Amino acid sequence: MALNKLLLVNGYLDDASGDKLPTAQGTAAGITTQRRNARGRDYDQCIFDAQAQRLCAKLFLHEMFQQDA
Amino acid sequence: MGMTARDVLRRTFGYDNFREGQGELIDAVLAGRDVCGIMPTGAGKSLCYQVPALLLPGVTLVVSPLISLMRDQVMALVSAGVSATFINSSLTDAQVAKAMANAREGKYKIIYIAPERLSTASMMSLAAALDISMVAVDEAHCISQWGQDFRPQYMDIPAFIGGLKRRPVVGAFTATATPRVRADILRALELRNPLDVVTGFDRPNLYFAVHSPKNKYAALAAYVQSHNHVGIVYCATRKEVDSVAEQLVADGYNVAAYHAGLPDATRTRAQDDFLHDRVQIIVATNAFGMGIDKSNVRFVIHYSLPQNVEAYYQEAGRAGRDGLPSDCILFYARRDIFTSVFLINQSDSEEEKRRNRLLLDKMIQYCDTQSCLRQYLLAYFGEQRGEDCDDCGNCAPSEALEMMDAANADASPKRKHKARKPREERAERIRSRKERAPRLAFSDPLFESLKAVRMEIATREKVPAFVVFSDATLVDMCQKHPQSEEAFLQVSGVGQVKLERYGAAFLEVLRGTQPANPATESQAETSALTPDQLLQSIAIANDSIQISLVAENINAVLLRHDMKKPAAWL
Ligand SMILES: [Zn+2]
User: Fold this and answer.
1) Taking Cα atoms as reference points, which of B293, B312, B299, B187 lies closest to residue B233?
2) What is the pTM of this model?
3) For the residues B400-418, what does the mean pLDDT come to?
4) CA angle B424–B401–B210, rounded 5-degree value
5) DSSP codes joined into one string, B502-551
6) What is residue B148's predicted lDDT score, i.e. its pLDDT?
7) Is the Cβ of B257 closer than 8 Å to some Cβ of chain A?
8) Chain B contact set for A50 (CB, 8 A)
9) Which of A65, B88, B199, B207 is 20 to 30 Å from B240 at the Cα level?
10) In whole angstroms, what is the distance from residue B436 CA to residue B446 CA?
11) For residues B7 and B29, what is the distance between their CA atoms, to the nearest angstrom?
């Protein structure tokens, strides 16, 4: 599963608004946003601190191993 | 016994040999002779004044109009252990005052300065107090009124030099100069009996190709998908930039758009994100690029027809400044000519229209030619060479082009191959081309790991990754696979200071003895690894990073263990 999808499924991100944004749980896990701009439109880019990076890696690896098993 | 230029090259910059033209120019400067160096982008112009600066007494002033370039070069110098600073409009008054005070105390060997600063009273008084050995004028073509980059402040340079108590050596450097501009430089800067060095315009590591896909976007997407590298996509209009960027974003790529219609802050952000590898692809009009000193751009794709060959070569030339193989691909559709002609006809001056149409014709000829593209480009700049390069889209179609064709289901009718060779023969040529080019380690898991270490350091030190080490240095690291500090110092681009600063972190990976890293054992053991063990070896950045970079760090480890399933982030 793609990282974003994993984070959505596990309740760290929410895309109800169309953009993927951190939920309260996601914020607690170290996901914040940064204002960016693409094609003339401002958007909020999720960024991941050290703790959140580890979380991503963990979710990904565990899912990968589960599938293999 | 004093240091020689070669010692400085080795110890500070980490290179073994001078490149074409560098040695002569440096020797002349050290002998007190003015110089004029015309060298293509990526040929190592800056070393021509940086190396002598460290050998000459006193300080070297480098006049440069490019704020971002000054900052990058100073960062790179400082990370190599050279005391340097810059003075330009990006600094506050207090910062300028501080830099000037430090300069007075003799704290710098190299000072980069914007031309408009030269005539200020504070600079004149500083200059009077300094022992200036050399004035290096970068982007020297800006002094010529014939050039499209004319900067009136450059005209103040001779007066500034004339006002110094002792005339320093004066060096002029540029990548772009027609004979007329060159004559202007020599005259306007009042160079005295200068050593005039023009190195070839050829950029052997660039692969040029013209491609006429039926569906440009499909071809672009196919290329980008298979080349997970940093690149620039040039478009003809703002509208096109927006639309291509939008599609790429929708397809999940990490993209920034750049054109003059965007607010300043947005553009600065886009440029900065690109420079720091926070975005992979920048989609831009020709407003983007001046002063961008990003060495690891792996492809430049022109989505539409450029206005002329000179602009094309300059823009395409932003690829591969680190000397590694890079692609310059032009998407050519006949209908683009109408857009170009329309743009040209916007001018009020008949003379200008006529001139620009002639220049456009040359550009179209490039797209239409069946012969060697490199030969065509070099001939345009007055360099004749008798033989085909065997290394361009017409001499040797690459897999990339074939793949883009495949992306256009019923292959593009305009795709041209001169007397298309049998498949086997083509494959053979491509193979031999690859052998000639420096061997690439991009897909090497070790390369990915080294990149992750570099990203971690760069993020921590808040500098662009190439300031730590260029891709070329990492590739050389993969190949030499040093195990000791002495061996690490042999890697191209590693000097004494960088060894001390970064050696340990990279050697740890290279030795495969990272304590928390069970990697590098034989792949047979891979299956025995638990997710938690793998987790320990994934690089974690101290600063917050976006998800694509997180995926990259995960992938570095997966690749190292030969796991086929890379982490996608979207
Ligand atoms: Zn060729």
Assistant:
1) B299
2) 0.61
3) 55
4) 120
5) HHHHHHHHHHT--TT--TTS-GGGGGG--HHHHHHHS---SS-EEHHHHH
6) 65
7) yes
8) 540-542
9) B207
10) 22
11) 16
Which amino acid belongs to residue B219? A
Answer whether A57 sits within 8 Å of B542, measured CB to CB: no
Residue B80 CB contacts under 8 Å (≥ 6 apart), including other chains:
B12, B13, B14, B495, B497, B498
pLDDT above 90 for B379: no
Of A3, A37, A62, the CB nearest to B269: A37
Q: What is the mean pLDDT of residues A54-63?
A: 87
- Predicted confidence at residue B59, as pLDDT, reads 97
The beta-carbon neighbor of A4 closest among B255, B545, B570 is B570
Q: How far is the CA of B395 from the centre of ligand 1 (A)?
A: 4
pLDDT in tens, B28-67: 999 999 999 988 776 788 999 999 999 999 999 999 988 8
Encoding tokens for residue B199?
């190195």
User: Which long-range contacts does B407-410 make (Cβ < 8 Å, 24+ apart)?
Assistant: B407/B213, B407/B215, B407/B218, B407/B219, B407/B221, B407/B222, B408/B213, B408/B214, B408/B215, B408/B218, B408/B219, B410/B214
**CA B41 / ligand 1 centre spacing (Å):** 20
What was the ipTM of the complex prediction? 0.94
Q: How far is A24 from chain B (nearest CA, A)?
A: 18
Is B302:B316 a contact under the CB 8 Å cutoff? yes
Where is B256: in which H helix or E strand? strand B255-258
Say whether A53 and B545 touch across the interface (CB within 8 A).
yes
Mutate to test the interface with A, among B533, B550, B558, B561 (most CBs of A within 10 A): B550
For residue A42, the tally of other CB atoms under 10 A from its CB is: 9
